[in-house]
Amino acid sequence: MNMKQTLSGLALAFAVTGAQAAEMSGTVGFTTDYRSRGISQTSGDAAIQGSLDAAFDNGVYIGAWGSNVDWGDDANLEIDYYIGYGADINDDLSYDVSFNYYTYPGYDAADADYAEIIAGLYYGDLSATFAYSNDYANLDESAQYIALDYSLAVNDDISVDLHVGHSFGDYWGKADIDDYQDASISVSGSVAGMDLTASYLINNIDDADETDKGAFRNDDTLILSVSRSL
User: Fold this and answer.
1) CATH number of the domain to which 116 belongs
2) Cα 81 from chain centroid?
3) Tell me, what's the pLDDT at 71?
4) Helix (H) or strand (E) holding 195
5) Residue 77 CB: number of other CB atoms within 10 A?
6) How far apart are CA 54 and CA 144, in angstroms?
């Protein structure tokens, strides 16, 4: 699927759901390092990120998310598009399924655009997610990711968030990095309309494959983030 097909699909989704009321939302934020599943996408440097979303009464939502990136070559921008559906199973249990398309405009070194399906199951403050791509990073190899997250509310403004994830599949078996686990503990809070988060990330990537500088930095690290909902 190319960019034109992706945008056409999003436009069609808007047309299909356009007759229903949509709730628009967005975010803008700053983070000291953009990490995806424990691996830096900005060579350990800071990132400015933002999103724009529309949620419809029938459970369908659609949106886009963007960030600067740095892979040590001419990659400098990531824009992700997604469309999904979420609903309640009962008073305590809900689910969500989305189609995500990751794009890197202006990236000439390679065509790294790819699609991924993500499914989530939510029970109270506990969530489980599973992601699958049959063509991860457009390299003709499949990759999967499974994660568990738990959020413990300290009070109305502060929470402690726990995360553990596992990256696996054909891509990781043939890439320099084998299957690995990542985990984090975060403290999140709201002050004057700003959402603040401090996260400490760890993983079990083999020492021979661990790097603490440059492209795809993957060492243990502390990340500070601030965002605001629009």
Assistant:
1) 2.40.160.40
2) 11
3) 97
4) strand 194-203
5) 13
6) 27
**pLDDT value of position 143:** 97
- Give start and end residues of each alpha helix (H) in 118-177: 170-174
Give the closest residue to 188 by CA, choosing from 150, 221, 218: 150
Q: What angle do CA 68, 72, 77 make, to 5 degrees?
A: 20
Count of structural domains, the chain: 1
For residue 202, the enclosing domain spans 3-229
pLDDT of residue 187: 98
pLDDT the model gives residue 173: 78
Averaged pLDDT in 10-residue chunks for the chain of 230 residues: 54 55 94 98 98 97 98 97 98 97 96 98 98 96 97 96 97 85 98 96 93 95 97
CA dihedral 46, 48, 54, 55 (to 10 degrees): 30
Cα distance between residue 37 and residue 50, in whole Å: 18
Residues 6+ apart with CB under 8 A from 5: none
